[in-house]
Specification:
Number of strands: 4
Number of domains: 1
Strand content: 15-25%
Strand order of the largest sheet: 1-2-4-3
Largest sheet: 4 strands, antiparallel
CATH architecture: 3-Layer(aba) Sandwich
CATH topology: NADH Oxidase
CATH superfamily: NADH Oxidase
Shape: globular
Length: about 180
């Protein structure tokens, strides 16, 4: 039987929290503490190819309006409302590269760090969902957030405390995803 706070339990019970956030504020201090531990993720050559922009509750309305302004007029209000749903947003940015191997290693590193962050947040009942909506690829959003030419937005991490976790969804059996080389 797995203990409720064991790593195995947290990995298996973690969910994407997309809605149903409480009013509890997600503070910069909490996010910094989580990132400080999450940054111990594997990183090739110790490049640590990540940086983050924190958007707290006080900045969210202005941030949402500015990001939504990059959408066509008929979608702006919908996108603004959507970006105002979480209690905070963490924009995850990685160093990009023209070298495919380096780019893949950098993405693996930041993805590992985001997973670490997510698991640590789950332990504190802080809901997380990693969003890759079209605006993360928009040059106007990149400019708005002062993302450099050698960087790439890998996601908007929506954050908010929650009371009720979504139901667990079944995973595909490992037997459908695993084969021995000798069986090829």
């Amino acid at each position: 039987m797995e203990k409720e706070n064991s790593l195995l339990h947290i990995i298996r019970e973690r969910r994407a929290i997309k809605k149903g956030y409480t009013d509890k504020e997600v503070t910069e201090e909490v996010v910094r503490d989580l990132l400080d531990s999450a940054m111990w993720a594997p990183t090739h050559g110790m490049r640590q190819p990540w940086r983050f922009i924190f958007v707290g509750a006080d900045e969210l309305p202005d941030f949402s309006k500015k990001v939504a302004s990059t959408y066509p007029e008929e979608r702006r209000q919908n996108r603004e409302d959507y970006l105002n749903e979480p209690n905070a947003i963490l924009v995850a940015i990685m160093e990009d590269s023209d070298i495919e191997k380096t780019r893949d290693e950098n993405f693996g590193a930041i993805a590992s760090m985001i997973q670490n962050f997510w698991l640590l947040a789950w332990e504190k009942k802080l809901g997380v969902v990693w969003k890759t909506n079209p605006h993360i690829y928009d040059p106007k959003v990149k400019e708005l957030l002062h993302v450099k030419d050698n960087e790439k937005i890998v996601g908007f991490i929506h954050l908010g405390y929650f009371d009720q976790a979504p139901e667990k969804k079944e995973r595909i059996s490992l037997n459908e995803k695993f084969i021995r080389f000798s069986d090829l």
